[in-house]
Amino acid sequence: MSYSVRGYAAHSPTGRLGLFDFERRSARPDDVVIDILFCGVCHSDVHNVRNDWGNARYPMVPGHEIVGRVLAVGDEVTRFAVGDLVGVGCLVDACRHCRPCGKGWEQYCENGATYTYNHADPVDGTRTYGGYSEKVVVRESFVLKVPETLDAAAAAPLLCAGITTWSPLRHWGAGPGRSVAIVGLGHMGLKLAKALGAEVTLFSRSPGKEADARRLGADHVVISTDPAQMAAVAGRFDLIIDTVPYQHDVNPYVPTLAAGGTIVMVGYLGPLENFDTGPLVFSRKALAGSLIGGIAETQQMLDFCGEHGISCDVELIRIQDINEAYERLLKADVKYRFVIDMASLKQEAAA
């Protein structure tokens, strides 16, 4: 039995998102059917909707930071029961037998991971539609347990913003005795790095953010446009996580790395103009990239957040305000993530 679902969709790269009725695929024996309570709004939603990456398929229902309650489970499902609080992130399937999948790195699946929206189901080819909607049907192995101790709305962006910083923090060994810096609006990077025990610094382009940064976990704030402040932290950082989602000059941050340190790009996908590799060679520094995280490490991150009471700073919005939220997001006019209260969609559907 398929599910008739209402959501919000984009029909072109320039149009506004609006109401859209569609069919979810029938649930299979290993599927979980989820009633969506909240869905985060990610910068990549805007990129996808506006076809910035050139692979948009319309109509498109965005949303890959999903938190909800289990409505039904297939006969083969063992890890979830009706009523459980669960999450779905950027991935809903992968081949599960290639080398990256074998390491728990489904996001790097050599045969192509299946994304929560703007993709095709690998079994029947049906379109995947995201979390700006009432319900979603997802294979059990790609559904995550959300700790009941967390606020459900504030937990939603953990499924992308959280894991995007958690994965490189863990992979590059952030913890006691390590010095970590965050570039950009990566507030979850500050919170997680601090909770892991690292010394944490925020690079900011403008003054006035110190109090907020310290509240989020920063031990230090460095104004990246101030040459004196940048010179004072030369050779300090073991790891820099760059969350900036647009093209920018990375060169100024390289001197602040310790020998053997790494800058990890998690926000910007594209060429870096005039990047100087010389300082990398002479001090065994590295420029690397990281994409979200695998299912096991996403669950690890959620469990860690539940144990430490960590969640995102969010502004709750109605689905009817999503187009205005996109414009505000592009202006960085949000602290720090928008989350859609999907009750607003159900109220509209009932009207």
TrEMBL record:
It comes from the Bacteria. The keyword Metal-binding applies. InterPro entries: ADH-like_C (IPR013149), ADH-like_N (IPR013154), ADH_Zn_CS (IPR002328), CAD-like (IPR047109), ER (IPR020843), GroES-like_sf (IPR011032), NAD(P)-bd_dom_sf (IPR036291). Keywords: Metal-binding, Oxidoreductase, Zinc. Its cofactor is Zn(2+). The keyword Hydrolase does not apply. GO terms for molecular function: alcohol dehydrogenase (NADP+) activity; zinc ion binding. Residues 15-340 form the Enoyl reductase (ER) domain. Transmembrane segments: none annotated. Belongs to the zinc-containing alcohol dehydrogenase family. This is Putative zinc-type alcohol dehydrogenase-like protein. It comes from Rubrivivax gelatinosus. The lineage of its organism: Bacteria, Pseudomonadati, Pseudomonadota, Betaproteobacteria, Burkholderiales.
